[in-house]
Design goal:
The protein has 131 residues and is α/β, with parallel strands linked by helices. The chain is built from three helices and seven strands. The protein has a single domain, classed as Nuclear Transport Factor 2, Chain: A (Roll), CATH 3.10.450.50.
Length: 131
């Protein structure tokens, strides 16, 4: 499905959506350094697992440690953006996550991330999935 949506609110919306899409592209490349450059030092990430509330990671180091472990757990990962829009320094990204596990099994799920940016960097990423 092609990416749909609008950046909203003119230049600010385009800039906010642009940073989020840069982060998603770096994630799909497993480019830890590029991902890290897009996060504030005090960034917050709330993962979807374990249910019902997920896990919370505070600070760039803790967030990046999560992503390193996440990449090690899957043979292949891909987050395909479906829709994106911004309102001020907030951005909502709807996506499909596809993976191939180390045992070769394929899987996917749909979800949404709610981002908050501060001074052009991601300060918060709250993730939710259809369950």
């Amino acid at each position: 499905m092609p990416l749909q949506g609008s950046s909203g609110e003119g230049d600010l919306g385009r800039a906010v959506c642009g940073v989020v899409l840069q982060f998603q592209e770096a994630l799909n490349r497993k480019d830890i350094a590029a991902m890290q450059r897009l996060l504030t030092p005090d960034t917050i990430f709330e993962n979807t697992y374990p249910p019902p509330d997920g896990s919370r990671y505070a600070g760039r180091e803790a967030v990046m440690a999560f992503w390193v472990e996440f990449f090690e757990a899957s043979k292949e990962v891909s987050f395909e953006p479906e829709e994106i829009f911004a309102a001020g320094e907030r951005c909502v990204l709807r996506w499909v996550y596809r993976w191939v596990g180390k045992d070769g099994t394929h899987g996917h799920l749909r979800g949404v991330d709610v981002f908050r940016l501060r001074e052009g960097l991601i300060a918060e990423k709250l993730s939710y999935v259809k369950g």
